[in-house]
Each structure stands twice: as structure tokens, then as C-alpha cells.
Amino acid sequence: MPKPNKTKSNRRSNDPFFKRESKKYAHPIPSREFILDVMKKCGTPIKKNELIKLLRIKKSEEEALTHRLKAMRRDGQILKNRKDVFCIAEKINCISGKVQGHPDGYGFLIPDELEHDDIFLNQKEMGKVFHNDRVMVQISGLDRKGKAEGTIVEVLERFNTVLVGRVVQSYGVTIVAAEDKRIHQDIIIPYGKDMDAVPGDIVEVEITTQPAMNIKPMGQIIEVIGKLDDSGIEIEIALRKHNLPFRFDKKIDKELEKISDISDGDLKDRIDLRDNFFITIDGETAKDFDDAVYAENHKEFFKLLVGIADVSHYVKEGSALDKEAFDRGNSVYFPRRVIPMLPEKLSNKLCSLNPHVDRLVMIADMVITKKGEVQSYEFYPAVINSKHRLTYTLVDQLIFQKQNQKEHPKELIQHLNTLKSVYEVLSEARNKRHAIEFDRIESQILFDEGGKIKDIVPLTRNEAHRLIEECMLAANVSAADYLLSKKIGLFRNHEKPKDEKLEILKSVLSDFKVHMEGGLSPVVMDYVELINKIKNKENFQMLQTMILRSMQQANYGSVNKGHFGLAYDKYTHFTSPIRRYPDLVVHRLIKSFLNKKRLKTDNLESIGNHCSSTERRADEATRDVENWLKCFYMKDRIGEKFDVVISSVTNFGIFVEISRLHIEGLVHVTELGNDYFVFNKEKQMLEGEKTKKKFRLGDELAVKLIRVDLELGKMDFTYIKNL
Known about the structure:
The chain is of the alpha+beta class. The chain folds into five domains: 8-89, Arc Repressor Mutant, subunit A; 93-157, CATH 2.40.50.140; 162-227, CATH 2.40.50.140; 251-467, no CATH class; 638-722, CATH 2.40.50.140. The chain contains 17 helices and 33 strands. 3'-5' exoribonuclease that releases 5'-nucleoside monophosphates and is involved in maturation of structured RNAs. Its main location: cytoplasm.
């Protein structure tokens, strides 16, 4: 072990990030970079007390260093081996990442660094961890396919402290099976810790002993939620399974008490637009009205004002309300229930642009040419008073179907017609820039008064939806342009499709005699032309779904990368701060520039990553709930026959969709007939070796429902014949 020397290289002041640490902390300790540099120069794994000497850490600084080393272990920069010695992770070929479990018991490490491929973790390794834990893995070999296998050498962070599951045994020792099937270990509940739960109960479990080598996970039941067939149980399960915050922290109560109705002081430095004819247009059941619109028709141009709830006036950066909104990231919309990002006092009342009450807003004031181009814009805080709360259905009837106009005030019809004119030129501009427009049919679940599912019906968009969408797009693009002019912002990015997915799409299209231009570098126009080619085909909805699957997910980031699908070279989210945290951040940024005050902006990328993650979390949770509800609807129809379309093909079978009900299920390969079926990934096809029977994407079949699994939210069919 080398002795600590007094050369300049080891002096605290020689830490290249000393100034940065001094700005952050009153008593700065060595930076992570400097600690790693010292460890590298040491040349061997190092004990903590030796590291303290090399870094010249004072007694009063040891606790702070301990916290820093713990954080470096959590982030996978260093680890502590069996001899209690610190090692640099990359020196011993360790890779940090998140565990992704599989219902069959094995799993994968999804590395933090994108340049690393996923690493296979066998059932023995998965016995040490839960799905979503962060770990350090050392590659131990290759499987027969040449894929890396790993050994978990350290658990960096335990993700699951509370789980939702079902009691499967309660004789002597209670056992709970997790509802998230990616967690395959059963949880043992010691005697007296089960709250008298019985088999079949859905419960919430606090994990008291995490899984490890030769150690089974243990816990205590902290809530008996209900039975699997209770009304609303599917949402209670999804909230806990996906770790969605659904109870507001009590700390926000004091902040909410201080927030009152609008006072004269709130109107200072705001433009008074209360006499302008602002209206809101939303769905029938909406309660949180983010946006209101107003338009004027001038000889040479239109003036479009989009008023967005000024949430940032009430939710201050760093407050308990802000922390709660950040943790949630977005509101989550389940059938019959909403988990709001903000408390009801704000989301449905003070911030919601309800009719006939004064409300604080941020205005995107735009001049739109008669060709639908945003010629100029400005942003400013204002106060408005919405004149009407309208629905998409009513607006569509009034100005697009021209029905029942005499039953409504002339002034309203005039203003709606002006908005319609703005929409028409914006829509024309959209067509000219070749934005992709998918004609998706979504499903809506209808319930009876007792909360039982009555029917599943298609939900289609009308022209009023598109009118509001075009107004919001114009405001979002203007906000993105404004932030770019200031050289800082949070953007909504949608990048070009990846090669692998494009190759699969092109192969599928060739089976339908459809050609897509652009090779592996298609532009938006190529997608628009493709959609036009398939519009009149019988398999339009299925092919459109394949086109959607070929695209990347949109995400948030601090660097603008444009929006491929909308054909914008810049884009952000400005129009929904009641239900999306990124919009709130964008409002704060715009206000900071208007007020000539700089905000903290070095965390924008991490905010974007977090909000992209919470958005995916919400999507997964709502998908789980919808699948569960559809399974519940179908469980009494086992044995019935259905006409279906093949919506996806895998090596283990085909997924089929009952188009009328928008319900999807699996026909396992063993239910296709007595043959060996070979999967062709490029052609998205299964073919029998002996019978040469082919099952391709888009084929129409007759099937019979044979099984419904409420736990997994899945249903199985057996093949009858081709149609």
C-alpha cells in the first residue's frame, strides 16, 4: 500500500472539480472524479481507511465521505468486495444496470450504458433480486446463442420495498404471490404479520427481508385491499404494481391552505383578457381544463390566443407541491378514475379554466397567416374568464355538422366559425409539411350503475378534436421556438425509426403487395404516402398498427431533436401543465426569460428522463387495467366462437384481435394444429413443416375462447379455421 504523499497531485485543491463542489457545499469533500482518479493511481483495490488517508479526509468529513462512497456504489462507479475493499467497477469488468424479470423465472440486466448489450441472468441469479432492482453484474460466460450471461456481484439499490400480491396459502405460514409476474419469488409472511388475510385476498406487503443467495424474501401485510372480483380492484392492483403515487403527502396540506382565490395582487403585471371570448372544448367527463382558445379573423391574418392554466403561479419550484408533481410526472387516466398530478383544489378548481370565473393563464399569442403559418408569437401572463365549457361532440355538431345552431347564441357560433377557419388553414399547412396522421380507433369501456362492464365500443375522434389539437400544436411549436432562441429548454423529441423495425415493416408490407419508399432512411413524406396506399385495404387498421410499431417512442430531453411524426424540426409540451410536469417546467422557463430571472437548468436532462419514465409507467398501468377489464368482460364467454384478425406473430404462437371489441388474445402454437411450426421473423409468419399451413399477419380466422386468466390479464383461443 503506497504511503500518502504530499505532492501537489494529492492535495485537495488539485481536485479539478473543487470549485464545483465548493458552490454546492459549505464544506466540500473530494469530487467523485477525484476519488476515482486517486483509486486508479493507487493501482489496487483499497480499504476505506487507506482511502481516507490518501484523500486527507478530516475526522469531521468522514460521514460526508461515507455518504459519497455509498452514492458511488449505488450508481455503479465502485463496489465493495467480500474482503470489504473498494474496487473500481470498470477495472473488474463489472456492469451496472437495472434487472428486468421474466415470468418464467429468468431475467436480464439492462445496462446503464447504452453501448452494452443486455446480459442474461439465470433463475439462480434472479433468486437474489426482484424485478427493477439495480445491480452490478460480472459477465460469467456466453450461452449457446453467444449471448452474455452474468453473475450478480452487488445489489446497488432495492427498488421494491412494498409489493401488491395475492394470498395463496395461509395455513401456519402465509405466502403471498406478487401480482407483477416478473417477480417470481413468493413472499413469506411470518405468523402474526398477516392481518388475518385468507387465500384469495389481494394484499399490500411491506418487504422486511429482501431476497439474497439462499435467503427467501419475507414481509408483513400492511393492507388487505379486497378480492379479485371486487369492483375497482384492478386499479388498486395497478397503482401498487407500477408504484404509482396515489396518496398525496400530508406536507402539501399547509401549502394548499395558503393558496386562495385570485386577489388583486395576483393580477399585477398581467394582461386583462376577461372581455375576450375564450372558450374551452373538452370531453364530456373532463374536469381539469388546461386550455382555452380565442381567435380573430383579420383581412391578412388570423390572431390565435391559446390560454393555458398558469400552474407555475401556484406550484413553486422546490415546494412540497412541486416535489409531489415531479414524483408523479403526469396524471393517470383509468376507466372511471383519475390519479391527478396535482391535488383537486388546483387540478379541478383554481387552475382549471372553468366557465364564468376569473383564471390566471399563460398566453401564447400567435399571428397565423392565411396559409396556416405562425408568422409571429409572444408569451405573457394574463387573466381570462371563459365564456363557455363546450364538448367535442357539441362543437362537431354545431360547426362541422351545422346542426342545432339556432339553439345557441349567435356570438358563440361566430367565434366557433372563426376557430374553424383557423383550424382549416392550420390543417392545410399540416398536409403541406406531410405530418403523419393515424386514423386510430380506440376502445371505450362502458359500465352499468353497479360498476360492471356493460359493453366495449369504438371511440373515434371527430373534427372538433382535431381543431383543438391544431391550436395546441401551434402553441407548442411556438414555445419550442422561443426556448431555442434562448438556447435552453425541455423538448419533446420523436426520432426517426430504427433500421431493424423498418426492415420488419417492409417485409410485412411486401406480403400485402405494398412498397414503401425511402429505404432505411425514410422521410415523413414516405410514411404519409404509405398510409394513403393502404387506406382502402381491408387490413388497414392492422397495417397501420404495424407502421406505428416501427416508430420510436417520443421522449423528453434538454436537447431539441425535432418531432419526426409531426414533421416539426422543433417541438415541446406547453399546453397541459395541470397533468404533465414537463409543461410546468416549460412555463417556468418562459416566465424566467420574460422576468429576466435565470432558473436552475443543469437538471433539465434528468427531469426529461424522469418524465419519460413516468409516462411509460402510466401507459403500462392503464394497459394492465384495460386488459384486466376486458378479461373480466370475456370470462363468462369461454367456449364462444369469434371472427378475428392476426395482429402479431411470434415464435410461440399468434396474437389475434376481435376487431369489434378491440380485444386481443393468444392462439398458442400448440393450438394451431398437430405440426412443427417455424417462425419467420422477417415475414411475420408461422409455417407448418409438414402441412405447409401458414399463419400471417392480417389473416382472418375463426377461433374459440378456451381460457381467461384475470391474474395475468390474458386470454387464450384455439384455432378453428381460416375465413
